[in-house]
């Protein structure tokens, strides 16, 4: 056994050696074919470095030119009216700089005043149409031109320097000419360029004309039309690529754009020179490769003949697996490494079989409850509807939603919510063989096939609801959970799965309007307003789940000081489906009817406290934010604990928080309300009566309850300046609040006259659109800075 194992080992080992040699040969070939690219890379580094070096040298030269220009601008002689003085000044400048061959002094109209070393003429010369004059006049700064021909036919560039007389506003243009076709400042920088025997570099201007070139005869040539690299440089690009020069020679060129001058630099090397060093090596590589291939092919044929047979057997088995055959089993007679491989193959196939079954199960079942999921629901529903249609039968789709499920999540956490869903799934499984599915969250569906009428569904519905008669135990506590069920019938309420599911969903929300724990059949007679209301309720629920609600802040201003004293948090909802804001008067009642108001209220309180803590830590003044509470929140016996928990989690002190409640809240269960308000006061929270004067106002509760603020309803403020009754009521409320040592705030202030009236009546604070509308948190900082009053 050891001998066989050892023999196979050495066979495989030698085969590996052969493969390694073959790979080595392959790498040699690969290296051979990559040598040109390596050479290009190496050449590019040389040409790129050359371009960078030339760019720096050109920059140094142009910096010197700009320094000379700065000197010119400081010389008052160029503004002299004495021609001898101006001539002497420009002569000294040209002789001392070493850059320039000639110079001109032009007046602001372009007339030549002085020409030094230029062509002498008695005629008046005007150069107002020359770019080097017009650009200097337009930009009022030093301008270095592209290459041009001067009046004597010499190829030059012109440094145009505007000189100003601040006393009389007169302007002169000093033009200094640099001759390019001799060993000037730009031509001399090429003396250090060494990029191979046939390589060279040159400079082009923005028009594609050669400014400087090792071959002086090329200076002034326009190569824009025939040279792609020059075209790219004039388009302000930089890079490296293959080109063909004017003599038809293929070259690789690096090029870059000089933004300050609108020029370009090109450095290029002939392609033939790049590859010359690899031509001889090419022949040797070919000979070695052919000999190695023949020899290694012989060794491979000898050793493969003895080992190919079992490998072939494994290959055929793998091919069968790729065709979907997972029932294979190979004999394990061989005790060598191939035998071990065969055993591992058999184990792998068994594992794959089990994994496929598991994956298939997971694809069609909910991982939390084990119930069939939405994918299997749609597949089963389609087949059941087809069968019902063929047999002229009806079918029913039930949409189930747990009532107040999110209160479990909010009070006990998501783990408790998941545990509740698992327990619900277990109770549903007891109703087998029902077609029951979990769509997601707390939503479940049931398909009842082949029924004759609605009455056939009622028994199933009652069985489902009976599963919620007993409480659920979560974290050592018992919870009673109910379910709302919506029902649609095929084909009465829809002929396809999507419409049936949608109508069952609509019916479920109708059942929730009955305070849950009920069922409802879909009715076609429901008008569009009802369906729209149900649809809006569904979208509101999803907006809460997806954190899509918004909070705006409206500032409150102290009239006496003109400073912001606080703000009111106002809930907003942007409906992404319609692209519009939903008015609060539409969705707040829906939230109260559907039981979502408690969850929404907790969401608002947590976000507001988090935002306030962020503002305080950001250095904002210590303001107080007010939050509106609904009557349902006050009826929740866990609400006080929720407020305490949120303040602890966010780290916000209660003194920065104010609750706005209506008079209607105070009139219900006064003893409980009094205890809740006292608890809030112990936390430091302020209490405000919202819309004061519009409810069943009673002076007794103002004395009984710990009220800090009275808010005058905007209905009294609207006509306060022209309605004596409103004016009297407002004045009385202000006086009443002050007598009770309470702050009074007027809502809905929209005009300056209203503000003046309230100031005269000594109202403490105001809020309204005249001061500022509600704004998002990121805009509130701007309101703070304005201090509007």
UniProtKB/TrEMBL annotation:
InterPro entries noted in UniProt: Biofilm_reg_signaling, dCache_1, EAL_dom, EAL_sf, GGDEF_dom, HAMP_dom, Nucleotide_cyclase, Rev_trsase/Diguanyl_cyclase
One Pfam family hit: GGDEF
PROSITE patterns: EAL, GGDEF, HAMP
All residue ranges annotated as the GGDEF domain in the record: 393-524
Listed GO biological process terms: signal transduction
Record membrane topology: Multi-pass membrane protein
Residue ranges the record marks as coiled coil: none
Domain EAL positions: 533-788
Ranges for domain HAMP: 305-357
GO annotation, cellular component aspect: plasma membrane
Major subcellular location class: membrane
Recorded superkingdom: Bacteria
Transmembrane segments: 12-35, 285-304
Subcellular location: Cell membrane
Keywords, ordered alphabetically: Cell membrane, Membrane, Transmembrane, Transmembrane helix
PANTHER family on file: BIOFILM ARCHITECTURE MAINTENANCE PROTEIN MBAA, DIGUANYLATE CYCLASE DGCP
NCBIfam families recorded: GGDEF
Protein name, entry field: EAL domain-containing protein
């Amino acid at each position: 056994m050891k001998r066989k194992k050892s023999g196979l080992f050495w066979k495989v080992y030698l085969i590996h050696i052969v493969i390694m040699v073959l790979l080595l040969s392959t790498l040699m070939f690969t290296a051979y074919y990559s040598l040109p690219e390596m050479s290009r890379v190496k050449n590019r580094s040389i040409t790129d470095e050359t371009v960078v070096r030339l760019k720096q040298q050109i920059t140094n030269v142009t910096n010197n030119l700009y320094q000379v220009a700065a000197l010119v601008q400081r010389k008052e002689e160029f503004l002299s009216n004495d021609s001898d003085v101006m001539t002497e000044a420009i002569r000294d400048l040209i002789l001392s700089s070493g850059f320039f061959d000639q110079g001109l002094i032009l007046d602001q109209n372009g007339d030549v005043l002085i020409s030094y070393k230029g062509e002498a003429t008695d005629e008046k010369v005007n150069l107002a149409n020359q770019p080097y004059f017009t650009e200097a006049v337009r930009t009022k700064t030093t301008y270095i031109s592209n290459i041009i021909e001067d009046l004597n036919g010499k190829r030059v560039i012109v440094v145009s320097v505007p000189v100003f007389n601040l006393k009389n506003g007169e302007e002169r243009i000093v033009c200094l000419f640099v001759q390019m076709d001799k060993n000037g400042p730009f031509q001399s920088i090429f003396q250090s360029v060494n990029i191979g025997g046939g390589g060279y570099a040159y400079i082009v201007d923005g028009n594609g004309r050669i400014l400087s070139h090792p071959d002086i005869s090329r200076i002034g040539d326009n190569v824009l039309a025939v040279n792609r690299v020059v075209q790219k440089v004039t388009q302000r690009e930089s890079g490296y690529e293959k080109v063909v020069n004017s003599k038809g020679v293929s070259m690789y060129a690096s090029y870059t754009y000089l933004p300050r001058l609108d020029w370009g630099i090109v450095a290029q090397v002939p392609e033939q020179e790049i590859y010359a060093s690899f031509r001889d090596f090419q022949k040797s590589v070919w000979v070695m490769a052919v000999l190695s291939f023949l020899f290694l092919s012989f060794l491979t044929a000898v050793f493969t003949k003895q080992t190919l047979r079992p490998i072939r057997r494994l290959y055929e088995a793998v091919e069968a697996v790729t065709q979907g055959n997972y029932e294979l089993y190979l004999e394990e007679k061989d005790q060598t490494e191939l035998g071990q491989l065969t055993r591992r193959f058999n184990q792998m196939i068994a594992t794959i079989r089990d994994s496929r079954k598991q994956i298939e199960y997971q694809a069609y079942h909910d991982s939390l409850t084990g119930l069939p999921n939405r994918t299997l629901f749609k597949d089963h529903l389609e087949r059941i509807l087809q069968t019902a249609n063929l047999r002229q039968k009806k079918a029913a789709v039930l949409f189930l939603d747990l009532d107040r499920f999110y209160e479990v999540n909010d009070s006990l956490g998501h783990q408790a919510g998941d545990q509740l869903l698992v327990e619900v799934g277990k109770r549903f499984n007891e109703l087998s063989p029902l077609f029951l599915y979990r769509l997601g969250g707390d939503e479940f569906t049931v398909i009842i096939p082949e029924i004759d009428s609605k009455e056939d569904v009622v028994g199933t519905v009652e069985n489902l609801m009976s599963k919620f008669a007993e409480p659920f135990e979560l974290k050592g506590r018992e919870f009673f959970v109910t379910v709302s069920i919506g029902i649609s019938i095929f084909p009465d309420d829809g002929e396809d799965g999507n419409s049936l599911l949608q109508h069952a969903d609509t019916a479920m929300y109708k059942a929730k309007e009955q305070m849950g724990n009920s069922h409802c059949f879909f009715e076609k007679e429901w008008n569009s307003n009802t369906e729209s209301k149900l649809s809006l309720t569904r979208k509101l629920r999803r907006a809460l789940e997806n954190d899509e609600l918004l909070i705006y802040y409206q500032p409150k201003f102290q009239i006496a000081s003109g400073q912001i004293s606080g703000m009111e948090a106002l809930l907003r909802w942007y409906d992404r489906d319609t692209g519009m804001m939903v008015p609060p008067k539409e969705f707040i009642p829906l939230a109260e009817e559907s039981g979502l108001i408690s969850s929404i209220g907790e969401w608002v309180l947590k976000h507001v406290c988090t935002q306030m803590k962020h503002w305080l830590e950001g250095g904002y003044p210590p303001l107080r934010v007010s939050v509106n509470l609904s009557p349902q929140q006050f009826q929740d016996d866990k609400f006080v604990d929720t407020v305490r928990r949120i303040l602890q989690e966010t780290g916000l002190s209660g003194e920065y928080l104010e609750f706005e409640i209506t008079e209607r809240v105070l009139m219900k269960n006064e003893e409980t309300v009094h205890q809740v308000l006292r608890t809030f006061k112990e936390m430091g929270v302020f209490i405000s009566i919202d819309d004061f004067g519009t409810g069943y106002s009673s002076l007794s509760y103002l004395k009984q309850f710990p009220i800090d603020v009275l808010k005058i309803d905007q209905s009294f403020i609207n006509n306060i300046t022209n309605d004596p009754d409103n004016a009297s009521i407002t004045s009385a409320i202000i006086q009443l609040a002050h007598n009770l040592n309470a702050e009074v705030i007027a809502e809905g202030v929209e005009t300056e006259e209203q503000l003046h009236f309230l100031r005269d009546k000594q109202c403490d604070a105001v809020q309204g659109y005249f001061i500022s509308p509600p704004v998002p948190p990121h805009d509130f900082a701007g309101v703070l800075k304005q201090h509007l009053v």
